[in-house]
């Protein structure tokens, strides 16, 4: 049996067990999603910060470019408590940055997006696969997705979270290791974020659930893919590796920065969004490490820093952008997504033939 | 070619690329070391806290039990600065524990051990393999070891450290991932401990050195071994998996505690030794997290907490012992080391035949 045939590829009707992660923030263009799906993997639209209209438009564009399955990824809104005083003080603190960088006033109020409006689009468009993070959809929503024949993929950062996802009827689980770039998907223990490395997390999750386990965190090439399959995963989800592809909508300087990282370049920080996420340690992260006041919870801090991040991107200023990336980002390449998909599969083939 | 034949097995003249880690503190009995070596792997005497006499005796016992290669592991004394005030305050703080637990006075002054005396034993006994952590031996020492035909294995927690080890003439490098139990081997950046997960660390180290890379951190069974080889490692080093073997000298309750962990049970703490190390989060760690005063550096804190730890072990009190273990300790079993070695190899064989 080929390494490509797993219970995940069967469940998703894809040819190779490689999922491009649904990264929020504009990198997962319809071109990227379609290229991955056309190459036999599963492309994912990272729709968390898209309006319902923008989501629908992106989904339709993807469907123009591919007839293969693809996924849409959203964040389940996590519970949080706002302290108006903490928010006020952080807003004031960030205004000093905005002044320093010259952020224009019109950048300052991002529209808020409703999760239920986003979910309506997922249901109406009958997307083939719905993946999510930060929580578990309500039972009614899971039922509607099932009625729609939409396959569901949840995100777990611990064995317990994976077990909970299976119990709630989710079809597959992405086990997110400590190495992963971007936001931690943790939802059972918001106060105390558990950090489990992929090498330890994947086999333990595999032993505790019967749904397919998708390894994620630090996987950048054929070596990581075969390692994940050896650990018992039925497939992999890769984020950073796709961020630097030509089709990715990530800022060109951000792509370059990822390729220039070392294993020591990234940290997990709450500075940008109020929720732990891994990215390249730049000036904003370092300055916020020294800032003595508390950071408002997600999504408040995320909204508060958005104008700054957006303006910094326009100014090509990497020091104030959120440069999410995993601990092995240095292994990436600037290449078309289809070529990356070809290369990954060839690398696995070559390795398999050695054992 | 069999998965067992790697440049590591060739270099070490062993039959299978599995190294039992040189854990300090009494778990690596001559019986354990010899059992692993007799099973075709490389057993390691964790000699860091042994007197030269005890080291010599253990080495001779190992040689009575096996004619195969084995290793001796030591800690290269890391630089540190003592603040007498910090030490004094910590000693006072720990006295409150000693009173509470009733630690007798004679337990209170552990003899200090000289690294150069330990090294003399390594050289005089012409041990086949010398592995080390926390630093790199002086060039003269590396030369003497080479003249002795002793193979050297250093510990790296980052790509930079691995490159430095190779540059200094070390023969092989153990790449220690974030998941690993026990002390972090970090030596280039004492102020800022880098935590890189195995999935990200191993391939990046492999790409930057030409000496054999030994994966360590979170590897507990055949899945972890094959995953490590897929990532490019020439072998693995496993600690927690051997702690629970019958021959291990670890406290019986400590073995049981390891087997009852989950993926979330361990944390990296400086509480016991002044240096970050991963272990089961017990009362002492939790109480020290709340203790507002600074912890003296290694090895001061290690010496200060030794009477408490030793007495707690005698009292079967797990809450004040250092319960070092990795993030996948739950995958261990209570079994003879020879059976574990057999099982590991069989598991890899079974997996290899599936790809």
From TrEMBL, chains A, B:
Keywords assigned by UniProt, alphabetized: Detoxification, Flavoprotein, FMN, Monooxygenase, Nucleotide-binding, Oxidoreductase
Pfam families hit by this protein: NMO
Catalyzed reactions: 3 propionate 3-nitronate + 3 O2 + H2O = 3 3-oxopropanoate + 2 nitrate + nitrite + H2O2 + 3 H(+)
GO molecular function, one term: nitronate monooxygenase activity
Cofactor(s) demanded: FMN
Example of a GO biological process term: response to toxic substance
CDD domains: NPD_like
InterPro entries: Aldolase_TIM (IPR013785), NMO (IPR004136)
Family: Belongs to the nitronate monooxygenase family. NMO class I subfamily.
Role description: Nitronate monooxygenase that uses molecular oxygen to catalyze the oxidative denitrification of alkyl nitronates. Acts on propionate 3-nitronate (P3N), the presumed physiological substrate. Probably functions in the detoxification of P3N, a metabolic poison produced by plants and fungi as a defense mechanism.
The protein, known as: Probable nitronate monooxygenase
Species this protein is from: Marinithermofilum abyssi
